[in-house]
Amino acid sequence: MVKDRNSFIFRLLSTLFVILAINFFLPRMMPGDPFSTTSADEVGEDIIVMTEEQRLYYLNYYGLDRPLHEQFLVYMKNLMKGDLGRSIYYKMPVRDVIMLHLPWTMLVVFGATVISTVSGVVLGTLSAKNRKKGSDKIMMTGMIAFAEIPSFLLGLILLLIFSVYLRLFPLAGAVTPFADYNGPAEQAWDILYHAFLPVVTLSLSQLTGVYLLTRNTLITVTTKDYIRTARAKGLGEKTVWVRHALRNALLPVVTRTGFMIGIMMGGVVLVESVFSYPGLGMTLRSAVVGRDYPLIQGILLIIAVSILICNLLVDKIYGKLDPRVGI
Amino acid sequence: MSLLKINDLKCHYLTDIDTVKAVDGISFEIEDGEILGIVGESGSGKTTVALGIMGLLPENTAISGEILYRDELISSLPEAGMDRFRWKDITIVFQNGLEVMNPVMKVGVQVTEPMIKHLDISPEKVRSKCADLFRTVGLDPKWMDSYPHQLSGGMRQRVLLAMALSCDPKLLILDEVTSALDAFTRKEIRDLLVDLQKKNGYTMLMISHDITFVSSVASRITVMYSGKVVETGPVREILVSPRHPYTRGLVHSTPDIFVYKDLWGIPGDVPAGDEFKGCPFSPRCTQKIDICSKASPVLMPVGGRREIACHRGGIANLLEAKNLNFSYRLPDGEYIQAVDNVSLEVTEGEVLAIVGQTGSGKSTLAHILANVIRPESGEVLFMDGNVSRGNYGNRFNGIQIVFQDPFSSTSNRFTVLDAVKEPLYINKIGSNGDRLQMVKNALELVHLPSTDNFLRKYCGELSGGQRQRVALARAMVMQPKLLIADEITSALDVSTSANVLRLLKGLQNRRGFAMIYISHDLSLTLKIADRIAVMNSGKIVEMGNSHDVMLSPSDEYTKRLVDSRIGLCCHN
Ligand SMILES: Nc1ncnc2c1ncn2[C@@H]1O[C@H](COP(=O)(O)OP(=O)(O)OP(=O)(O)O)[C@@H](O)[C@H]1O
Ligand code: SF4
Ligand SMILES: [Mg+2]
């Protein structure tokens, strides 16, 4: 038991170390450095053109002229103290930058997780119940075709239709700028209003996966002997489906949800760009463009850690749901 | 009034490839409080019947016929209508498997679930009732909070039983409840079932391929073969005198009934293809006639609550001997009665052993039966005709005899080919080319080489075992319906004789001929015989099922014979 725990912690730490190393070296392998960016045009901010002298000064100021391994050691040491460094672009601690943008991303990702899981399970169940009927075939074909559309393209389409033409939803941002709310309800409404399209886009990108998994697992489960036993007991269709079939079919869906959050953490970068939504994804993008090494490292670290946490959570939840998994 | 009545039930699985007629027109009734057993080998459609009654057959099944529960037609009820009967009236104990119970639900919950649904009962009472049920089936109530995978197979079977009893049903269907269990647990479950039935008067339909288990509980047995009922009747009668060839095969290949005999399954396979019209057992039947492959026999009453489905009315008599007498005149002028008023019957495909000391008249009897000598009085009927007139030794499908001494039955100066070919030659059967092929086939049957080299060998050059095989081939070349083997292994050493005997039994099982096996060696005899006749000074003193004769010999002489055997073989 203790041994198991130790090896588990060891595995976790070594995973973290590898992630940290990649986070550190990857950005530095990109061409250019924070002070010689020329491609800042996309960000749309002022371009500060520096002289070579200034550039060297700043490199020295941020310690970027020191050998790589030294920089890495410093980075690790600071990290131990909980210091993620200072953003070169924002000129403030990386932690504060992240704290500013993380909530928006969490809102979108969790919203999308809930929506895609719930609607995927519901649709999958409907499809499985109507198996061999037309409605199942139509639904399945539609879903599979739909899954072929890349999420940023889907986001663009939604943006064009609902924001540009119909003007039902905002074009950018997470809140109405300079808004004056009459109470928290109105504020919440404004936030949801802005988050709606990004959440929907991200949900749709995951929906087919959940739907197919639910449908196929359910179909397999309904051929199991225990479903026949439940039928024999005269429990009624609803109980048989919900308590016996769905309860078992949800097990793999739970596992999938864990992975899904990881995938969405990646997908959210694109979606946030499309909707100019000020989450971590957008921030990461500008950090990459500006070669803001400390910020890139910080964001990637947060994404990696949250994926790790999600997987841990899923393992725990699965253990609770399936008694067959050893404690 | 019968509790359950099934009329001409047919359940055909329509798969993508073909139609499986899993149940093909069966009818039976179960009286209130009765235990009916359904037996049959794997795939005969037993589970399908059970699922059919419960209305649980998969969608791809074509179902016809009627199922009546207390005179109410339940076979055409929709799912919701069927739920009225499920568990409250009719329950089923499924064959135990890991997935028969929901893997993520505590077993206690699974037992109480139907109670909450069907009985008007409070949650607290449900739990205490569940604990009672657990105790009833011999399980500690503490297991209520475990999951199925935490229980052993026997415990799961008990939970399934508790589950089935939870709503106090009338009719209990038990599908292979003990097949997966060890002998000890099996006995416990059996006793439990008998006990429960006595106390609560459940009506039971017990399904199993294990005829011993079923017959220890049920009062009536229905034998299924390939989706049809081939025989039905009271347990005792079926076990003691099975009338259908399939039932006999089933009973005879059951180790618990035939304790001493080696196991020989029923050879052959169930006919495939849904176009087959004849008796489903005909490919494996040793007594089939023309009509058997054209029309399917119907189940007919044969008296004593028994019914069988067979064109020949069940296992047919092959040979019948009535009041045979024969005496030898000794040199001193006295007569010795070698065969004294002997009557016996041999049925199709059966192995009858005649045992007795040297000089008890066995060989003389064998010679009379084979029409080698004529009896002084009495008659022998072979296939309902008279042997002496029909001369069945000289034709195909007749009677052949193999003698004790291989050196006298095959002449030293004959080649193997001549020795085996001789009967064909004498009886002018086939052309020369045909004969050679028949000889080769016969030699292969008895596991001898059929090379030219071997065919040209002289019998004198062969070993005792080989020579006895040549003698056997000589008999087999005439494709007998009845083979009389007279002490054919007594001149051979132990290992050779065991080999020859195995070969002989294998041949008999595969080709389905009947055999009269004469021997003074009881131990060997028991390995192959279905019935035993014990002879002493010319008389048959005892005749019956081989295990009955062995376990409870009634005649003094038989007792001595049996005792002498046990004294010889068991060193205790
Ligand atoms: N769902 C199904 N679809 C198609 N064929 C089936 C199905 N279930 C059973 N069968 C076929 O029907 C026949 C009878 O099966 P069934 O399960 O009733 O036999 P059984 O007598 O219970 O055998 P066992 O002793 O092995 O349990 C078999 O040939 C089997 O292959
Ligand atoms: S004799 Fe014919 S009908 Fe009777 S079991 Fe044999 S094949 Fe079937
Ligand atoms: Mg079965």
UniProtKB/TrEMBL annotation, chain A:
Its main location: membrane. GO terms for cellular component: plasma membrane. The chain crosses the membrane at residues 7-26, 102-126, 138-166, 191-214, 253-275, 295-314. It is a multi-pass membrane protein. Keywords: Membrane, Transmembrane, Transmembrane helix, Transport. InterPro entries: MetI-like, MetI-like_sf. The keyword Membrane applies. Belongs to the binding-protein-dependent transport system permease family. PANTHER family: OLIGOPEPTIDE TRANSPORT SYSTEM PERMEASE PROTEIN. This is ABC transporter permease. The lineage of its organism: Archaea, Methanobacteriati, Methanobacteriota, Stenosarchaea group, Methanomicrobia.
TrEMBL record, chain B:
InterPro entries: AAA+_ATPase, ABC_Ni/Peptide_Import, ABC_transporter-like_ATP-bd, ABC_transporter-like_CS, Oligopep_ABC_C, P-loop_NTPase. This is Nickel import system ATP-binding protein NikD. GO terms for cellular component: plasma membrane. The keyword Ion transport applies. It is found in: Cell membrane. It is a peripheral membrane protein. It comes from Methanosarcina flavescens. Keywords: ATP-binding, Cell membrane, Ion transport, Membrane, Nucleotide-binding, Translocase, Transport.
